[in-house]
């Protein structure tokens, strides 16, 4: 039975918590300054390959990504939930990756996690300021897949989850990704 729609903040937040989103670490850097933040993303286009991720408007990660014109997306595995929690905290030095003891790989001066499910390196194509965040649309310029086994870490109902069993409808799906 469907309930009547409501417009209270609590009901809207409860409805938004139903979204299952991939968890990533967004990385950026300029010179010796490197930062990262826990985030999520959505793909925008396959041709050209593009994704979108929101970053806090006043965040150091956004500032460095904006200045560099580039960022990385390190998609986390289900065994990396503690990294997601740690990367959401403020940096204590100019190199947050080092603060968190996260091994780094670099492509075109853009830092990313060396150990994760996969990495996307993006140039910023568009930025859209929306209240206290900026939606960064990035064109994927390079990528790699991690070697360790695992499944994606997801954010759902304000908690971290691993993906579940494969649904039988997958045999009929024609969606490109």
SSE blueprint and pairings:
Elements: H1 9-16, E1 21-22, E2 24-30, E3 33-39, E4 42-46, E5 49-56, H2 60-68, E6 70-75, H3 81-87, H4 96-99, E7 104-107, E8 110-113, E9 118-130, E10 133-145, E11 153-156, E12 159-162
Antiparallel strand pairs: 1-11, 2-3, 2-6, 4-5, 5-10, 6-9, 7-8, 9-10, 11-12
Q: Which regions have little confidence, pLDDT < 50, spanning 5+ residues?
A: none
Question: What is the highest CATH level, the class?
Answer: Mainly Beta
Shape: globular
Number of separate structural domains: 1
Spatial ordering of strands, largest sheet: 3-2-6-9-10-5-4
Element string (H = helix, E = strand): HEEEEEHEHHEEEEEE
Return the CATH architecture.
Roll
* Helical percentage: 10-25%
Strand fraction: 35-45%
Number of helical elements: 4
What value does the average pLDDT take? 91
Distance between the termini: 32 Å
Q: Can you summarize the main beta sheet?
A: 7 strands, antiparallel
Strand tally is 12
Q: Which structural class should the secondary elements be placed in?
A: alpha+beta
Task: Look up the CATH topology.
Answer: Pnp Oxidase, Chain A
Rg to the nearest angstrom? 17 Å
Q: Would you identify the CATH H-level superfamily?
A: Electron Transport, Fmn-binding Protein, Chain A
Structure commentary:
This protein is 16% helix and 44% strand. The strands form three sheets. It has a seven-stranded antiparallel beta sheet with strand order 3-2-6-9-10-5-4, sandwiched between helices. Strands 1-11-12 form a three-stranded antiparallel beta sheet, with no helix packed on it. The protein has a two-stranded antiparallel sheet with strand order 7-8. It is built from four helices and twelve strands. The chain has one domain (21-164): Pnp Oxidase, Chain A (Roll), CATH 2.30.110.10. It is of the alpha+beta class. The model has no long low-confidence stretch (mean pLDDT 91). The longest helix is centred in the middle third of the chain and has 9 residues, at 60-68.
């Amino acid at each position: 039975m469907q309930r009547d729609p409501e417009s209270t903040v609590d009901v809207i937040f409860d409805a938004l918590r139903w979204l299952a989103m991939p968890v990533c670490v967004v990385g950026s850097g300029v010179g010796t300054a490197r930062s990262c933040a826990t985030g999520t993303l959505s793909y925008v286009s396959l041709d050209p390959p593009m994704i979108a991720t929101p970053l806090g408007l006043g965040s150091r990660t956004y500032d460095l990504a904006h200045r560099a014109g580039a960022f990385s997306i390190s998609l986390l595995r289900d065994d990396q939930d503690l990294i997601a929690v740690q990367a959401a905290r403020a940096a204590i030095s100019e190199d947050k990756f080092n603060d968190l003891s996260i091994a780094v790989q670099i492509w075109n001066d853009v830092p990313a996690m060396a150990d994760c499910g996969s990495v996307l390196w993006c140039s910023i194509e568009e930025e859209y300021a929306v209240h206290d965040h900026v939606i960064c649309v990035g064109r994927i310029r390079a990528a790699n897949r991690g070697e360790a086994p695992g499944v994606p870490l997801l954010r759902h109902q304000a908690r971290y989850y691993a993906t579940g069993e494969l649904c039988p409808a997958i045999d009929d799906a024609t969606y490109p990704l």
